[in-house]
Amino acid sequence: MITRRPAQARGHKNHGWLNANHTFSFGSYYDPQHMQFRALRVMNEDFVSPGKGFGTHPHDNMEIVTYVLEGALEHRDSMGNGEVLRPGEFQRMSAGTGITHSEFNPSKDEPVHLYQIWLLPEKDGITPSYEQKRFPDEGRHNELRLVASRDQAEGSLLIHTDARVYLATIDQGQSVTRPVAAGRYAWLQVLRGSVTLNGQPLETSDGAAIANETSLTIEATTDAEVMLFDLA
């Protein structure tokens, strides 16, 4: 079963400096029908104005994955990390027992377009940690590249939850296929372009909750970029 979450049905908040879209309930956006999907708790697509950002704020007991599509995002945290995240790079932060951090668009004239994703950890109270890594285009061109996992397989980032996160850029007319193990679930997020998922059309910024499927075929109807989550 594939249940589409249309982009236009998401929660939307325009704060002036921040244009935010919420797949699941977040902040002042509350929808009891869309609280989370399995361990996937937050799927925010954000556009941050030049020179603006999120001031220092706390997190705990959450796995936070950030991916920039366009622009750059400067990160600083209470663990001493200070990095700039650019397109093609993934950032993973395990908040665990508690951290504070800030995120800022360092550009004077270019907005930053990003996804921030939260996954519920398997257990609370882990030691906070941080990773950032680039995944080159050639490793995910017309194939699903593992970018985050519980066991760091294939050089992926570590996440402390039973999930595997894949990224692919797919040329128009090409497709990628992935089996779904018995008892597993999946979520597909279309980052750019248009695809079909087992024949069902999905557009830019659409998501899809997947249950009771044994195999997924993602075909690009335009050049596309997608993120796929394999979930317990």
Automatic annotation (TrEMBL):
This is Quercetin 2,3-dioxygenase. Residues 7-119 form the Pirin N-terminal domain. Fe cation binds at H57, H59, H101, E103. The gene is yhhW. GO terms for molecular function: metal ion binding; quercetin 2,3-dioxygenase activity. It comes from the Bacteria. Belongs to the pirin family. Residues 146-231 form the Quercetin 2,3-dioxygenase C-terminal cupin domain. CDD domains: cupin_Yhhw_C, cupin_Yhhw_N. Its EC number is 1.13.11.24. Its cofactor is Fe cation. Binds 1 Fe cation per subunit. Gene3D superfamilies: Jelly Rolls.
